[in-house]
Amino acid sequence: ASLASRDSKILIVGGGGTMGSSTALHLARRGFKDIRILDVYQIPSDNSAGNDIAGSDSLGLFGGVSDTAWDAWTSDPVFIPYAHTVGKLDLTPGDTPRSRRLREKYEKFRAMGRTDIEWLANAEDIKRKAPHLKDADIEGWRGLWCANGGWVAARDAIDSVGRELVNLGVKSSFGSSGTFASLLLSEDGKTCRGVKTVDGTEWEADLVVLAAGAWSPVLVDLEGQCTSKCWVYCHVQLTDEEAEAMRGVPTMYNDVYGFFFEPRPDSHLLKLCNEFPGYTNIVEHQPFGARNPIKMSVPRSHAAHPTDTMPTESLDEIKRLIEICLPHLKGRPLINQAMCWCTDTDDANWLLCEHPRWNGLVLATGDSGHTFKMLPVVGAQVADLIEGKLSDEKKHLWRWRPGAGDPHGRGRGGPAPKDLSEVDGWKHD
Ligand code: FAD
Question: Does the structure's ipTM exceed the value 0.95?
Answer without folding.
Answer: yes
